[in-house]
TrEMBL record:
Tree of life domain: Bacteria
Family named by the database record: Belongs to the fluoride channel Fluc/FEX (TC 1.A.43) family.
Membrane topology annotation: Multi-pass membrane protein
Species this chain originates from: Sutcliffiella horikoshii
Binding site for Na(+): G73, T76
Gene: fluC
PANTHER family in alphabetical order: FLUORIDE EXPORT PROTEIN 1-RELATED
Regulation (activators, inhibitors): Na(+) is not transported, but it plays an essential structural role and its presence is essential for fluoride channel function.
Main location: membrane
Any one GO molecular-function label of the UniProt entry: fluoride channel activity
GO biological process: cellular detoxification of fluoride
Function of the molecule: Fluoride-specific ion channel. Important for reducing fluoride concentration in the cell, thus reducing its toxicity.
Catalytic activity reported: fluoride(in) = fluoride(out)
Species lineage: Bacteria, Bacillati, Bacillota, Bacilli, Bacillales
Record-given protein name: Fluoride-specific ion channel FluC
Compartments it resides in: Cell membrane
Length: 126
């Protein structure tokens, strides 16, 4: 672990966290946790795209960890997903909670896969 990697994760995480905060503010009026879904879907897509693009490329380690662990890790949020589940359970039905959990997990996987496909395609073009 180098200082350059640590700084890259720190800066990426700060940027990702600020972006998530702005998305959360913009979606605060919704009863359903749209903001959490949005950041997790977009973050999964971005990380999938980046992963597909960097495979077999010589990308510096600090760039990998800065974007992946830092920015995408700071942007996406598993802890808020868990908190949203408990809040929804109190305010809604188990059906709504189940739909939210299923769409979060399945959507995250789908967007990561689509991002991976895009990253592979972009890698061939560049």
């Amino acid at each position: 672990m180098t200082m350059k990697n640590i700084l890259a994760v720190f800066l990426g995480g700060a940027i990702g966290t600020l972006l998530r905060y702005w998305v959360t503010l913009g979606t605060a009026d919704f009863v359903f946790p749209v903001g959490t879904l949005l950041v997790n879907f977009v973050g999964s897509f971005l990380l999938g795209t980046f992963t597909g693009w960097i495979i077999q490329r010589k990308v510096k380690e600090y760039m990998k960890v800065g974007f992946g662990t830092g920015l995408c890790g700071g942007f996406t949020t598993m802890s808020t997903l868990a908190a949203d589940v408990f809040l929804l359970e109190e305010q809604s039905t188990m059906f709504t909670v189940s739909i939210y959990l299923f769409s979060s997990i399945a959507g995250g996987l789908l967007f990561a896969f689509l991002g991976l496909l895009l990253g592979h395609s972009a890698r061939r073009l560049v």
